[in-house]
Amino acid sequence: MRLGLRGWPRTVKVGYKTERKGRGLHPSGLKEVIVRREADLDRIDSKSQIIKISHTVGERKRVAILERAQALELTVANPGPKKAEAAPAEELIVKEAEPAKTEEEAGAGGKTE
Known about the structure:
Strand content: 5-15%
Shape: elongated
Number of helices: 2
Structural class: alpha+beta
Order of helices and strands: EEHH
Radius of gyration: 30 Å
Number of strands: 2
Helix content: 10-25%
């Protein structure tokens, strides 16, 4: 007896759920708490909860939340990508254009008359 068609997930039946004590938890086993501002970090227990920054939070607040979370030793589920800092304009190296060769210099390289 085939239980599912090829390329399709199995049909949901009784017993398809995960264990009751593991439902709604982050894969690390901690309870996820959505954070929208820095003040929300004060009510987080670092041993049993993990913070997840709301998707509506902008970059400025996200950076502030991450710094505060690091100071409080909290785990962040979605810290976001690390951006590379741009090099200052003074340190950029600009290559100067090489002077163009004249016809005499270009022709004298391999020809003998």
